[in-house]
TrEMBL record:
Domain of life where this protein originates: Bacteria
Keywords attached to this entry: Hydrolase, Membrane, Transmembrane, Transmembrane helix
Pfam families: Sortase
Lineage: Bacteria, Bacillati, Bacillota, Clostridia, Christensenellales
Biased composition, class Basic and acidic residues, residue ranges: 1-15
Molecular functions per Gene Ontology: hydrolase activity
The protein, known as: Sortase, SrtB family
């Protein structure tokens, strides 16, 4: 009992003051509150993203209904016979210039063009803001797809929408079994493209060249694109051909893009 004589309450032997437990509790509560705030913020973001994804899905479901009206979808039986009502679509957005469809993928969307390559990164084809954006032409291209190389962009969405399914062509078997891209234009024209190559390129790659000095330069470009493709078909490409380059992002590689390239096979008026 003597050793406690003269010691202040809260002091340890030797005169040192014992730490207050109240302070550690406050720190613990601050950490818990901060963690809870982070969790709430993360959940809010997830809910917001899911909401945008659902809104995007509904937007394009509605646009498909506008495009096809009450007619039964015909793309599964004969994509060349499909009818797209561009008058109705342009009443929604006059910048809609085509409709793209790739069998055995989710790619079945209107194609738009703006005065730059920024607007439709964050706006749907009905001009509503949405992170999924739209499928859009490079603004340098002609909207009637008459350039030597027409470039078409779309996001790689985690829910598989927009141009995410371009990555299916990374699989050699899928590439071999799915070789056509269908493009529907105002006036009833149906353009059929044969896929000849695909692969990863840099975001500033020469693959995004739209016009060429002469036929020889274009033929050189075509040979290079086909030869360096991860997968390709053995088809002859000439300076008289027209191609499309479909481009999307690569997960975790901000500086790279995945492209699928196809050459115009035929054009039919239906």
């Amino acid at each position: 009992m003597e050793e406690n004589r003269g010691r202040k309450v809260g002091e340890e032997p030797g005169g040192k003051r014992a730490p207050k437990k109240g302070g550690s509790k406050i720190v613990s509560w601050i950490i818990i509150a901060a963690a809870a705030a982070v969790l709430v913020f993360a959940l809010w973001n997830i809910i917001g993203i899911k909401g945008e994804d659902m809104a995007n899905e509904q937007t394009y479901k509605d646009l498909k209904q506008v495009a096809e009206g009450t007619a039964e979808p015909s793309q599964a039986a004969d994509p060349r016979a499909r009818k797209i009502d561009f008058d109705a679509l342009r009443a929604v957005n006059e910048e809609i210039v085509g409709w793209i469809y790739i069998p055995n993928t989710a790619i079945d969307y209107p194609v738009v063009i703006a005065e730059d390559n920024d607007y439709y990164i964050s706006h749907s084809a009905n001009r509503e803001q949405n992170r999924a954006g739209a499928i859009f032409l490079d603004y340098r291209n002609h909207p009637d797809f008459t350039d030597q190389n027409t470039i078409v962009y779309g996001h790689r969405m985690n829910d598989g929408s927009m141009f995410a399914d371009l990555h299916k062509f990374e699989d050699e078997d899928f590439f071999r079994e799915n070789k056509y891209v269908y493009l529907y234009l105002p006036g009833g024209a149906v353009q059929v493209y044969d896929i000849f190559g695909s692969g990863v390129v840099g975001d500033m790659d020469e693959a995004y060249t739209i016009s060429f000095a002469d036929g020889a330069a274009f033929e050189s470009y075509l040979a290079k694109m086909k030869n360096r493709s991860a997968s390709s078909f053995n088809m002859e490409l000439t300076a008289q051909d027209r191609i499309i380059t479909l481009s999307t992002c690569v997960r975790g590689q901000d500086e790279n893009r995945y492209i699928v390239q196809a050459v115009l096979e035929q054009q039919e008026d239906v």
